[in-house]
Amino acid sequence: DGGRRNPFFQFLAHFRACNREELGNLPASFVSVMGSMIWNEMTSTQKAPYLKAARKADYTFMSRCAKANWVLRNLREYMAARQCHANTLWTMMNVVRSWTESVMIHLDDSED
């Protein structure tokens, strides 16, 4: 399903298709690592077709964090409506601040 892929997954699918014989029966995790190493060395010009394909596929970033997804969803709606809702922005800022603080606390706890 290419409808929800991000640019890297677009590239990875193309990488696998073009190198099927060379990759043979390598584990998927190994192929993903190889692809990520190549992706990280690519220029923005080289990545452009995959970015375009992801945009065309209407890709929307989703985080594993529910708070971050809430903020992103509200921000997208806010930007789409092009209306100023100060209360919504204030709430989103507080959620981001709270999330940032919880991440920092978690990082501090994990270092001990």
Report on the architecture of this protein:
By secondary structure, the protein is mainly α. Helices cover 76% and strands 0% of the residues. The protein is built from six helices and no strands. α1 packs across α4 and α5 packs antiparallel against α6. The chain is flat and about 55 Å long.
Summarize it:
The chain is mostly helical. The chain has helices at residues 7-18, 20-23, 28-41, 44-56, 66-81, 86-111.
Key words describing this protein structure:
single chain; 112 residues; mainly alpha; 6 helices; 76% helix; flat
What is the β-strand count? 0
Q: What is the radius of gyration computed over CA atoms, rounded to a whole number of angstroms?
A: 19 Å
Order of helices and strands: HHHHHH
Uncertain residue ranges: none
Shape: flat
User: How far is the first residue's CA from the last residue's CA?
Assistant: 43 Å
* Count of individual helical segments: 6
Which structural class fits the helix and strand makeup? mainly alpha
Please, what is the average pLDDT? 79
Largest sheet: none
Strand content: under 5%
Helix content: over 70%
Question: How is this fold's topology laid out?
Answer:
Blueprint: H1 7-18, H2 20-23, H3 28-41, H4 44-56, H5 66-81, H6 86-111
Helix pairs in contact: 1-3, 1-4, 5-6
